[in-house]
Amino acid sequence: xxxxxxxxxxxxxxxxxxxxxxxxxxxxxxxxxxxxxxxxxxxxxxxxxxxxxxxxxxxxxxxxxxxxxxxxxxxxxxxxxxxxxxxxxxxxxxxxxxxxxxxxxxxxxxxxxxxxxxxxxxxxxxxxxxxxxxxxxxxxxxxxxxxxxxxxxxxxxxxxxxxxxxxxxxxxxxxxxxxxxxxxxxxxxxxxxxxxxxxxxxxxxxxxxxxxxxxxxxxxxxxxxxxxxxxxxxxxxxxxxxxxxxxxxx
Length: 250
Prior knowledge:
single chain, 7-stranded parallel sheet, 7 strands
């Protein structure tokens, strides 16, 4: 097992990539704080994962709540070795059509949340002699898509912030990397199937976005996050690992 005696926080862990990552980390021997805005969701995940996981309801836009999340990991498990900044949300709109409050919220959740979680995690990571920060970016930082202006901007910021933090904190033996998912099946797409006129065509369209001819599963991204979090990637920092079935290569 690759995470024996490690303590991790995973945000956005109520479902999807975050929940899959928390589950994989537990399987690899870690103690995990399962954090999400949705308290009911994280409680259900923790119920499945057992005693090596604890739930934390957190709004990553709120510094006091983020501090409390870090303190919970340290007090309950004795320290912190890994934080996975996975909390995020999307939104439709161009810079012309988006309302300012929607823009601010997308930037706050996806980018400010990474800043706050990293800011308050770094002293705890340093106290353990170093550690790993893994941020969830997106393959769209390598190209753009229509009608997603705020999301593209936020995830581009995550990718750039990852590189900046890697330079700033290599002296602390803290590695900072990001993972860039493509289309990953989630509850969002399950809901979409009930709303589109032709569900089969919708699924086919998702698969066609990647040269591999399929969409990804949350476990595909969890495996990449595990690699970036564990000692096997000990010489990797400031990098972005794209996991999108080849979509960014087009």
